[in-house]
Specification:
Radius of gyration of chain A: 19 Å
CATH class of the largest domain in chain C: Alpha Beta
Structural class of chain A: alpha/beta
Strand order of the largest sheet of chain C: 12-11-10-13-15-14
Strand order of the largest sheet of chain A: 8-7-6-5-4-3-10-9
Largest sheet of chain A: 8 strands, parallel
Shape of chain A: globular
CATH architecture of the largest domain in chain C: 2-Layer Sandwich
Number of strands of chain A: 10
Number of domains of chain A: 1
CATH class of chain A: Alpha Beta
Number of domains of chain C: 5
CATH topology of the largest domain in chain C: Nucleotidyltransferase, domain 5
Number of helices of chain A: 11
Strand content of chain C: 15-25%
Chains: A alpha/beta (about 325), B alpha/beta (about 450), C alpha/beta (about 650)
CATH superfamily of the largest domain in chain C: Domain of unknown function (DUF4445)
Largest interface: A-B, 56 and 60 residues
Number of helices of chain C: 19
Number of strands of chain C: 27
CATH superfamily of chain A: Dihydropteroate synthase-like
Largest sheet of chain C: 6 strands, mixed
Bound molecules: iron/sulfur cluster
Oligomer: heterotrimer
Helix content of chain C: 25-40%
Chain lengths: ~325, ~450, ~650
């Protein structure tokens, strides 16, 4: 008698929440289109099991100050546009970004220490130059983050941008700014399921609706903690599917930041020959970090290299087909 | 299904005689449940219990060895869907394929590249695992010759790829007793292939064009024909359906204990790819999603290295605390007057401290002691971050050659041991830093001075 | 029903008469009893702000119909008698309600003396084989004709008068013998010690005169933070009195690790031994004085302490307890004589220390398991000892598993700015009004407060959390606009009592650091038993009863312990607070020596789980570092409470609570 095989489907009680970034004219903003992420009612790409209403999207990272410290591989790929954030953002649009991730690096005390008013101008002009939804990152220094992100949130009022990063010991100011101006806040935790959930809860306890929170469980690059991110993201997704409302936020991964920090992507001299071709290595590093985390449940991937964008988009096409 | 410690305990004598080396029967039961002990260590288990424990212990995914000798590798015997639940045990073999239509020297070049490829990551040498030889010519003799050539150059495990039992037999004969993986038995040829697998004591890969149902029926028949060491090829038409198959096979085996699909799997990423880069991306997904044997079409170090790194990452035991490497870490560009802090190598501790130092903008030296992945308080409580350990870390790190001052800042939580550290480190001044990382920045900016 | 007098009332209106004031009010059906009372000018106290949390607005509905919301503060019996919480009860029709006048409510119940309530915790035949037996002897003085030496003379009389055959003697007793015999005309009382079922007696004391109508022993719990001594009448098996003090070693460090480190320096070990012995001696003097018991008449002592405390008390090197692979010098210390230790009872009195399981699960826990009787039950039992270290035991008659986690001394009142022991003057319970954030508290002994004890800290944490003064992460919300919240020199803090209310005129506060300490302590304990339960493949729901022991003072408020996530959210009848089980175990083994072999069996049977061996403890710990817990689904009643509080606030304030 032939054996019969039934598709092994698991029953889930929950789904990832949908979060929309960007607001068009109809919604009180000026974006040309909006991007909705999340919504999966199954593990990544298991189409046989549950609905996957939105594909993962790619945010291309741009900076408001020329990133002289970036790898030559990146700098040569982008060329001159890195000197002008507006041109850079426009080129990112041309490359097919779904979202522009604007890093306000110039507000960092070590790279210009620009104040909130200058930053407000930058944000306004980027909003004017491109019509994609925006993610805005502060310089990563708590006091400066709070100072400039509040102004950024104000000038972007109504545009439904995502603002980050909110961390366990510095979230109240940013959440309040998002609440007041209709934005989405990004909750970051240090590769820890529990702390991620705690920051999500604390932010939601401030009254921020759950469909205005993205979570960033911290990305470990390939070879530098990728497995921890992978497992934390799997656990968060499982918990979301099991119905835990406080882990159902879509996930955003800062792939570019981490992958290009890896020695493999940064160092061309004095490394083993078996590492292969330096010119290609960084891109592969970024690509593999991205596609691996895609399979762990990433909804938004923040990338740096145009070729990685291309590779990852192809991978998403294949996974979503 | 695996038994819990308590279920096993119920089957033990409960006399706490300690002969197994454990203080109590329950302790022994828990060791057994965690696969940290052998049942034979207890001389007093009844025959009945022994039988019950052994049948419950049978792995839901069969462990299959590919190749023979030193370089053989084993796959299967996995127990979890997600690595955080326990760990993934047997990392996939990564192989590169040659075709019997290639020129002999091209084949030899590839074989040697694969054979010689070795790269060190975190103190471990990682390598590729073997060669797949494909009977692209359709000719049995050519195939056998090619296999012979490969065998003459390497002892690495082989996968022999042909649907033709005659060609396979010739190749197997050429491969000697190296127990290559036979790829593959199908609905058409399975009886002959099963015969070869038995004859050459080689593991057999099974492929069915009609999905997992067909695959299960085939393996069912093949096992009845007496072949036990099987490998499944669950590949489907495209990337996402292949991924779905990989997940489904694993679920059948683990969640339903469904024996016909309780085998490791083999995948061929290139079949789903149009470029080498794409093949790499797909291979990476197969490594993360349960593949046991990944056969690549191309050898390119730039693409191989990230795959081997990924494999190492995914198969790291997640039960071990997350650690960073004990070392000297620098922030900004510290000079000989910059502050020197010390903390433990639990990565969360490191990340928090590092983040705060970075945020302070003060160039700083940070010494990380090996606390076996414990945080400051836990490590201190466990004696893994005591005066001796700190002194040893300072002395062996070579930090003394990099700085002009002799002042070390301890985490505030272990303020009580500053006297002891001073005793252990003659000539050093020991300062007490803040208890909480958030106060590091004010400390570095306001309190710290090298004198 | 509608004949409550007064005047004709409108439809849908109810008339409520309040006793004993006699005030009457007409309110709409559905009005909260609390509101009705307030409108009538009847004062009902609501420490929690009327959120059903404190149960202190209890009133009696003597007649009429009301609708109550369920509350854990009312038993069915109380409801049957008409009790209702004014803040959780609405009026359905006319009613007569009795409200306790305010003055009476304020009076706290008198402090019961601890010793009265202490009874033998488990059944044992303590009279079968008493370890200490006293015999009165009238000895013929020696003469030239009968010149038998003193000792043989005594032996002879013991045999003749009491049938005692074999008696061994030690030098100190012999040295003292001549005087004792002659002091009161050759009338003496001998104290003999019988070890187990051995027929050989050991002569441990000879006192002049007839002292056979009393026989004293002491049971001692040596805690890292606190030492407790019970004075026990061995003839009746009753605890006569008890005394407690901080362990004198506290000056050498708060926790066992610091003590071990201290013990390794110079004569540190001897110093530590001296400190704890002094603490015990001081307590003995206190007890002796109060009960007119001469210390040399105390003939037996049993101590229970964690492994480090036991080592240090006995002067045994404790160094290796702390170093991998964590082995103590002994888990079964031999019986020693009091004089060797400097304990000022009868020099020859035996001192028995409870056996331990290993370095981190000591004799105090073995004593606890013994006194809890969990080793005899069929029910899956979780035993939690909340002390400086949280020790946890899981199991039943079939098996026992144990682990230890480092909780810190917060719940013993140490390591918290205004923390103190549970003695008169300690705030032992606190309520915080959800709307005004004003606290109400109860002080032990009805004195002006001096500090906050363990149970007070626990209830403070729960109240701060539920009333919204702190967020789930334990951070004080600085924007509440109450003078109770301020940023002091130690960071943000909440003022529990203003200086003017206190004994020594300082503001009693809880700082954010205190709060974090308490959260860390509760998280360590919760994580400990979660890991323990999971390690054997069970879940919390399988646990049938939970025994709580430890240093909370007089009681632990289960409800609040659940609210902060110290204890699992389970029906309250599964919990039982056992008090100081270590002292109780010592007491049991003091009066009933058979229990010593039972203690050995328990120690041998307990399987120790090392928490640091894998990641699961870290994971459980981080997830418990939140109020009540990161996994809210494990705390359904707390989730309900928060939701109700929030809803009610939205109602009363007409706005969101953010
Ligand atoms: S040897 Fe067997 S009977 Fe003895 S303790 Fe170990 S498991 Fe128990």
């Amino acid at each position: 008698m032939p054996v019969t095989v039934q598709t092994p489907v698991e029953k889930w009680n929950g789904a990832v929440r949908e979060v929309t970034l960007g607001a068009t004219k109809a919604d009180g903003g000026t974006r040309g289109r909006t991007v909705t992420v999340g919504g999966s009612a199954t593990l990544p790409f298991l189409h046989f099991e549950g609905a996957i209403p939105n594909r993962p999207v790619i945010a291309i990272q741009v900076q408001d100050i020329d990133p002289l410290d970036w790898s030559p591989t990146l700098r040569s790929a982008w060329g001159d546009v890195t000197k002008d954030v507006l041109k850079w953002a426009a080129k990112a649009v041309d490359l097919g970004a779904d979202i522009i991730a604007l890093n306000l690096r110039s507000a960092h005390p070590d790279s210009g220490n620009r104040g909130p008013e200058e930053i407000a101008e930058t944000v306004k002009s980027v909003l004017g130059a491109v019509d994609l939804p925006l993610i805005i990152y502060g310089p990563g220094v708590p006091e400066k983050d709070n100072e400039v992100l509040v102004r950024a949130a104000e000038v972007a009022a109504g545009e439904r941008v995502a603002i980050g990063l909110c961390e366990q010991n510095n979230y109240r100011t940013i959440v309040a700014a998002c609440l007041a101006n209709g934005h989405v806040a990004i909750a970051r935790a240090p590769i820890d399921v529990n702390i991620q959930k705690q920051i999500n809860i604390l932010m939601s306890d401030m009254g921020l609706p759950l469909d205005r929170i993205l979570m960033d469980p911290t990305t470990g690059a390939l070879g530098y903690g990728l497995e921890y991110s992978f497992s934390v993201m799997e656990r968060l997704r499982l918990s979301a599917l099991q119905g835990d409302g406080m882990t159902q936020m879509p996930t955003i991964c800062t792939i570019g930041d981490e992958a290009w920090r890896a020695k493999e992507a940064k160092v061309s001299q004095g490394v083993p020959e078996v590492w292969g071709d330096f010119a290609k290595r960084g891109v592969v590093w970024e690509t593999i970090t991205a596609t691996t985390l895609l399979n762990a449940g990433a909804d938004i991937l923040v990338l740096r290299h145009p070729q990685a964008v291309e590779n990852v988009r192809k991978a998403i096409d294949q996974l979503i087909a | 299904m695996a038994l819990s410690g308590l279920e096993i305990y119920k089957l033990l004598p409960k006399t706490n005689c300690k002969e197994c080396g454990q203080p109590t029967c329950l302790a022994f039961a828990m060791k057994l449940a965690a696969k940290g002990a052998e049942l034979s260590a207890c001389p007093h288990v009844s025959e009945e219990s022994k039988a019950a424990l052994e049948s419950a212990g049978a792995p839901p995914i069969r462990l299959v060895a590919i190749g023979s000798g030193d370089q053989k590798f084993e796959v299967g015997n996995e127990t979890v869907m997600y690595r955080h639940e326990k760990t993934f045990y047997h990392q996939p073999g990564i192989l590169v394929r040659v075709k019997d239509t290639q020129a002999a020297d091209a084949v030899v070049v590839t074989v040697q590249q694969v054979q010689n490829y070795s790269v060190e990551r975190v103190g471990i040498n990682i390598t590729l695992n073997g060669i797949a030889v494909e009977n692209a010519s359709g000719n049995a003799q050519t195939f056998a010759k090619c296999v012979e050539l490969v065998r003459s150059k390497t002892d690495m495990p082989l996968v022999l790829m042909s649907q033709d039992p005659a060609a396979m037999e010739a190749a197997l004969a050429a491969a000697g007793d190296s127990q290559p993986l036979i790829y593959s038995a199908t609905a058409e040829n399975w009886e002959a292939m099963a015969g070869l697998a038995k004859k050459f004591k080689a593991p057999l890969a099974v492929y069915a064009a009609d999905g997992l149902g067909g695959l299960a029926n085939l393996t069912d028949q093949i096992t009845k024909a007496g072949v036990a060491d099987l490998v499944l090829d669950p590949s489907a038409a495209n990337v996402n359906s292949t991924l779905a198959s990989l997940v489904q096979v694993r679920r059948h085996a683990l969640r339903k204990n469904f024996r016909p699909l309780g085998y490791p799997v083999i995948t061929f990423p290139s079949r789903l790819a149009s470029t080498t880069e794409e093949e790499t991306v797909i291979a990476a997904q197969h490594i993360a999603r349960y593949s046991g044997v990944v056969v690549l079409d191309n050898f390119d170090p730039t693409l191989i290295y990230p795959l081997l790194t990924l494999r190492q990452n995914i198969y790291t035991d997640p039960q071990k605390p997350i650690q960073v490497k004990p070392d000297i870490y620098t922030f900004g560009d510290p000079g000989d007057k910059s502050p020197l802090l010390i903390t433990t190598n639990f990565s969360l501790t490191y990340f928090t401290v590092a983040g705060e130092i970075e945020a302070s903008g003060i160039p700083t030296w940070l010494l990380i002691a090996d606390s076996e992945g414990m945080s400051v308080l836990t490590a201190w409580a466990a004696g893994k971050f005591d005066a001796e350990k700190i002194a040893k870390t300072v002395k062996t790190s070579g930090i003394a050659d990099k700085i002009g001052h002799r002042k070390l800042v301890l985490p505030g939580f272990v303020a009580g041991m500053s006297g002891e550290v001073e005793e252990e480190l003659p000539g050093w001044k020991i300062a007490v830093g803040p208890r909480e990382a958030v106060d590091i920045s004010p400390y570095l900016k306001g309190v710290w001075s090298p004198d | 029903m509608s004949d409550l007098g007064v005047k004709a009332k409108r439809d849908g209106q109810c008339i409520i008469v309040f006793k004993p004031s006699g005030k009457i009010i007409e309110v709409e059906q559905g009005t909260l009893l609390l509101d009705a009372a307030r409108r009538a000018g009847v004062e009902v106290i609501t420490p929690c702000g009327g959120f059903g949390r404190c149960g202190r607005c209890k009133v009696q509905v003597e007649m009429g119909e009301v609708a109550r919301r369920q509350s854990a503060h009312l038993t069915q019996a109380e409801i049957d008698k008409g009790s209702a919480l004014a803040c959780m009860t609405v009026v359905k029709g006319d009613a007569i309600v009795y409200v306790e006048p305010k003055e009476k409510v304020k009076l706290a119940p008198p402090l019961e003396t601890a010793a009265e309530k202490i009874a033998l915790p488990i059944a044992c035949e303590w009279q079968r084989n008493p370890r200490i037996r006293k015999y009165y002897l009238e000895v013929e003085p020696p003469t030239l004709a009968d010149a038998t030496n003193d000792l043989d003379r005594l032996r002879r009389e013991l045999k003749l008068q009491h049938g005692v055959e074999k008696v061994s003697v030690s030098l100190p007793v012999v040295k003292n013998l001549a005087t004792a015999l002659r002091q009161d005309g050759w009338k003496v009382t001998t104290a003999l010690e019988y070890d187990g079922d051995d027929q050989q007696a050991r002569l441990i004391g000879v006192l002049s005169g007839d002292r056979s109508s009393t026989s004293w022993g002491v049971a001692v719990d040596i805690g890292t933070t606190t030492v407790v001594v019970y004075l026990v009448d061995l003839l009746t098996s009753k605890v006569v009195d008890a005394a407690t003090a901080y362990n004198g070693q506290i000056n050498a460090g708060d926790d066992v690790i610091s003590r071990i480190i201290y013990s390794q320096r110079g004569d540190g070990l001897a110093q530590l031994q001296g400190m704890v012995v002094k603490t015990i001696n001081d307590l003995l003097i206190e007890l002796g004085g109060r009960n007119r018991v001469k210390l040399p008449e105390i003939n037996e002592m049993v101590v229970a302490g964690n492994t480090t405390m036991t080592h240090l008390f006995l002067g045994i090197n404790a160094k290796y307890i702390r170093e991998e692979p964590y082995v103590p010098v002994t888990t079964h210390p031999p019986v020693v004589r009091a004089a060797e230790l400097g304990v000022r009872i009868n020099h020859e009195a035996g001192v028995y220390a409870f056996p331990s399981v290993g370095s981190y699960v000591g004799g105090d826990i073995v004593a606890g398991v013994l006194s809890s009787a969990m080793f005899q039950t069929d029910k899956l039992t979780l035993f939690i000892d909340v002390g400086t270290n949280g020790e946890i035991v899981l199991g039943s008659a079939d098996w026992l598993m144990t682990c230890a986690c480092s909780a810190g001394p917060a719940f013993e009142g140490a390591g918290v700015r205004d923390g103190m022991r549970a003695i008169p003057g300690a705030i032992e319970e606190i309520w915080i009004n959800t709307e005004s954030f004003e606290p109400t508290y109860r002080v032990m002994g009805n004195l002006p407060p001096q500090g906050i004890c363990g149970s007070g800290l626990l209830s403070a944490l729960a109240e701060l959390f539920v009333s919204g003064v702190i967020d789930k992460g334990g951070r004080i919300r600085r924007e509440l606009g109450t003078p109770r919240v301020r940023v002091g020199e130690h960071g943000a803090e909440y003022v529990v009592a203003w200086a003017s209310e206190t004994q020594d005129e300082h503001d009693i506060v809880l700082t954010e650091a205190d709060i974090n300490n308490l959260i860390r302590a509760k998280a360590a304990i919760y994580a400990g038993f979660s890991v323990l339960v999971n390690s054997v493949g069970l879940t919390m729901a399988d646990v049938e009863q939970i025994y709580i022991a430890g240093g909370f003072g007089r009681h632990i408020n289960i409800e609040k312990a659940i609210q902060i996530g110290l204890l699992p959210d389970m029906p309250w009848d599964r919990f039982k607070y056992l008090g100081n089980t270590s002292a109780l175990g010592a007491y049991t083994a003091l009066v009933c020596q058979d229990m010593r072999s039972v203690a050995d069996e328990i120690a041998a049977k307990m399987t120790y789980l090392e928490l640091s061996a894998d990641n699961s403890f870290m994971n459980e710990y981080t997830s418990a570092l939140f109020l009540p817990h990161t996994d809210m689904t494990a705390f359904p009643t707390v989730a309900d409470l928060l939701e109700n509080t929030r809803e009610k606030l939205v109602l009363t304030r007409g706005s969101s609570v953010v």
